Amino acid sequence: MSALFPALVHGSARPALRFGERALTYGQLASAAGALAVRLSGAGRVAVWATPSLETAVGVVAALLAGVPAVPLNPRTGERELRHIVGDSTPALVLAAPGVELPRVLDGLARIDVPVAAPDQTTPLPGEPDPSSAALVVYTSGTTGPPKGAVVPRRAVATTLDALADAWDWTADDVLVHSLPLFHVHGLVLGTLGPLRRGGSVRHVGKFSTEGVAQELGAGGTMLFGVPTMYHRLAEVLDDDAELRKALTGARLLVSGSAALPVHDHERIFAATGRRVVERYGMTETLMNTSVRVDGEPRAGSVGVPLPGVELRLVEEDGTEIDAYDGETVGEIQVRGPHLFTEYLNRPDATAAAFDGSWFRTGDMAVRDPDGYVRIVGRKATDLIKSGGYKIGAGEIENALLEHPGVREAAVTGEPDDDLGERIVAWVVPTDPARPPAAPELADHVAGQLAPHKRPRTVRFLQALPRNDMGKIMKRALPHD
Ligand code: MCA
Ligand code: AMP
Question: CB-based burial of residue 395 (10 Å sphere; 0-12 exposed, 13-18 middle, 19+ buried)?
Fold first, then answer.
């Protein structure tokens, strides 16, 4: 395989990364990441404290140059989840921005402060590692238990980014604007490594705001990546914000992913700007599977067609392949190709269960239109919740709630939410019905143990949970409003 980042081999004064006021050219990035790569060489795995910063980008690029798998950590991860991730991935050290305080869970790890200033002497970049070797270990939630580490090979990163370049005419001239977190595939692989592979640039807005997006897109940004919650928030204010309308209208490409963008938001953005948001569909385990292409017909509610190199099929419950392209026969999406992860770290059982031979079972249910466009209509597992574009397992939240002394029984569901797509709802039987714990206390407990985005937004107290004869909780029988 050729270099993952050809533009780094040549170095140049072209802009590569910008986070707020801080920026690096390709030459500066090559020097800083190249020097760090030498220090990381042979390190096993390295954790990256993935704040939205230059240091995170430099740290991950350095690990990739060194051929050392990077494990991005959400800096807001709670104690229990962080302990699990570190115990499972056993990183040799942690990369962090200078001055950033790390939690005590990481005390046992050596720390390297990521230098972003180019060193005096340029270090030659290491040779390109094997394409099948691991690039990243990205933790992702399942229906039960703690998150699993998806091992993503270098080949998958290169394949998916080149396939997106083909679908979107993505070039070195593009300036990508986004404000996604850097510890998931969307913000890290697509939003950071994507521009770097093309030789283009990325401008990170920091915390998402409609003003920040307007400013960066208006000042030369050509593409915008976001989750549906972000597009929903843009759609909400577009009619009253001429600057934002102008910025979106002037962009070359607006891309949404990580969850379905409601047709209503598609239409509002189109009405205000004349621009169609393009949807693409992926997963941590598969990187990107499908997209609406710039040379194809945009279609709200569709995730487009399989990307180059991606084989996609729909299967019935019993595993029979569906031939129909009729827009109505529903089956599970299975995919195959060089864009797939290799395994869940330390989980051969879960890895085996995720595959049907060489096909990866996505768990997403879809139909195909006569022209091959894929429309996602649901998900197999009701215990997976997508909130703000984050995948969250009901089981992990239930386990955390059950550790709270005021909780005797707990069940967690997702309910439709205009802003977040789905909102986490906790159903709780209190230990003492006369003195149930306060809802914010339970939310803080979950945020502190797992992560703030996993906290319940609504807590409903019950005297008992509905159970079947086997004692299993019947979530569908919970009394919704
Ligand atoms: C509130 N907050 C709390 C608590 N309550 N913090 C701690 N404990 C509490 N009890 C804080 C929040 O942390 C946040 O803090 C603020 O209150 C508001 O929180 P929230 O309501 O969640 O809204 P938000 O922070 O504005 O988040 C919306 C968002 C976010 C920006 C859309 O959900 C987001 O960044 N989503 C992106 C997810 C993503 O990248 N998914 C990709 C994975 P503060 O204000 O300080 O921040 S999917 C993927 O990778 C696949 C491959 C794919 O297809 O893309
Ligand atoms: P994650 O494991 O966090 O990477 O989330 C992957 C899941 O996000 C997929 O299995 C889908 O359910 C969902 N997803 C990603 N992109 C889209 C999209 N454009 N439309 C609908 N669902 C999506």
Answer: middle
The residue with tokens 């004349």 is 274
Indicate which CATH number applies to the domain containing 399: 3.30.300.30
Residue 408: domain span: 384-477
pLDDT tens digits, one per residue of 310-335: 999 999 999 999 999 999 999 999 99
Nearest to 429 by CA among 473, 385, 378, 366: 473
- How far, in Å, from the CA of 456 to the mean position of ligand 1? 13
Percent of the chain with pLDDT over 90: 93
CA distance 42 to 369: 48
Split into its structural domains, the chain has a count of 2
Pairing outcome for strands 46-49 and 278-283: unpaired
Give 126-149 pLDDT, tens digit per residue.
Answer: 888 999 999 999 999 988 889 999
Instruction: Give tens-digit pLDDT for 166-180.
Output: 999 999 999 999 999
Name residues whose C-beta falls within 8 Å of residue 342's C-beta, 6 or more positions apart in sequence: 132, 134, 151, 152, 153
In a domain, 328, yes or no: no
Instruction: Identify whether 360 is part of a domain.
Output: no
**In this structure, is residue 120 part of a structural domain?**
yes
Of 191, 216, 241, the position where a domain reaches its end is 191
Interval between CA 123 and ligand 1 midpoint (Å): 38
pLDDT score for 261 = 98
Q: How far is the CA of 389 from the centre of ligand 2 (A)?
A: 8
345 HSE (CA, 13 A, CB side): 27
Mean pLDDT value across the chain: 96
Q: How far is the CA of 420 from the centre of ligand 1 (A)?
A: 9
CATH number of 79's domain: 3.40.50.12780
Does residue 74 line the site of ligand 2, with CB under 6 A? no
| 228 within ligand 1 shell (Cβ under 6 A) | no
Average pLDDT of span 295-313: 96
Average pLDDT over residues 236-258: 97
Q: Which atom of ligand 1 is nearest to the CA of 227?
A: 37
Residue 448 included in any domain: yes
> Among 81, 63, 256, 82, which Cα is nearest to 157's?
63
DSSP-derived letter for residue 440 is: H
Q: Which of 191, 223, 249 is the last residue of a domain?
A: 191
pTM across the whole model: 0.97
